[in-house]
């Protein structure tokens, strides 16, 4: 029996990176998917990748800006109107933002990162939790980061937003466990996604691959993680097998968060 057979799963940031990889994994396991992203072209590419390996999959695409509550309500209402329920939610969309010392970090840039990474996660949780509470079941995985459980230099906006995601996860796990809803977060480290590649190019420019070697030296495994490795973890955490994991923040970082 496929773990996601007859289950409806929403994935934000589904047009690339961790969202796309997780969507592909859950599609193989029978999920009905609602992929959400601000990038319409990325959504189409994700859907095509799914159709190539799971042509029987049902995949809905919704273009949305998660920093706008009205857009968030729309993708949630669209899902319920179309499928009648939400079994699982990968609350994943996010950006890294520009890198700078805190004193030089632009206020507009800080607000942009917070609006997408933290407010967007809050809006998703707020409106999905109301539905899951009424259903009496559901599973949520939020994307935090190693930067949400330890300091990361030159990324005050990103780190602040991801620490906030950790707080929301733990707090909501306390609030909604009694209603049959399981909430957890993942804390990825150096995973080779388009967002991480963009971050390395900020630091290293044309020599970004050299900057990448220095980046991965921070984790004991001395390599980048693969998006599909995160996809395997997300699929497990959203499945019924992980229902008793609640309020937890789970690193997937090659051991980086434990290294002194």
UniProtKB/TrEMBL annotation:
<dbReference type="InterPro" id="IPR002347">
    <property type="entry name" value="SDR_fam"/>
</dbReference>
<dbReference type="Pfam" id="PF13561">
    <property type="entry name" value="adh_short_C2"/>
</dbReference>
<dbReference type="GO" id="GO:0008206">
    <property type="term" value="P:bile acid metabolic process"/>
</dbReference>
<dbReference type="GO" id="GO:0016491">
    <property type="term" value="F:oxidoreductase activity"/>
</dbReference>
<dbReference type="InterPro" id="IPR036291">
    <property type="entry name" value="NAD(P)-bd_dom_sf"/>
</dbReference>
<keyword id="KW-0560">Oxidoreductase</keyword>
<protein>
    <submittedName>
        <fullName>NAD(P)-dependent dehydrogenase, short-chain alcohol dehydrogenase family</fullName>
    </submittedName>
</protein>
<comment type="similarity">
    <text>Belongs to the short-chain dehydrogenases/reductases (SDR) family.</text>
</comment>
């Amino acid at each position: 029996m496929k773990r996601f057979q007859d289950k409806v799963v929403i994935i934000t940031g589904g047009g690339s990176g961790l969202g796309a990889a997780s969507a592909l994994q859950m599609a193989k396991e029978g999920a009905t998917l609602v992929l959400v992203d601000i990038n319409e072209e990325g959504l189409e590419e994700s859907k095509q990748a799914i159709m190539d390996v799971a042509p029987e999959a049902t995949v809905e695409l919704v273009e949305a800006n998660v920093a706008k509550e009205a857009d968030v309500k729309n993708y949630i209402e669209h899902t319920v109107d179309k499928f009648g329920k939400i079994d699982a939610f990968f609350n994943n969309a996010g950006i890294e933002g520009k890198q700078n010392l805190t004193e030089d970090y632009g206020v507009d840039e800080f607000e942009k990162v917070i609006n997408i990474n933290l407010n967007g996660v809050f809006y998703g949780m707020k409106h999905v939790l109301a539905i899951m509470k009424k259903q009496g079941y559901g599973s949520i995985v939020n994307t935090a980061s190693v930067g949400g459980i330890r300091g990361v230099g030159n990324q005050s906006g990103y780190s602040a937003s991801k620490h906030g995601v950790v707080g929301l996860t733990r707090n909501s796990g306390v609030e909604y466990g009694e209603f049959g809803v399981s909430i957890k977060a993942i804390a990825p480290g150096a995973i080779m996604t388009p967002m991480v590649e963009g971050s390395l190019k900020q630091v290293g420019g044309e020599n970004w691959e050299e900057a990448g070697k220095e980046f991965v030296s921070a984790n004991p495994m001395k390599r980048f993680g693969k998006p599909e490795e995160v996809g395997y973890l997300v699929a497990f955490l959203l499945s019924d097998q992980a229902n008793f994991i609640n309020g937890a923040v789970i690193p997937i970082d090659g051991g980086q968060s434990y290294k002194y």
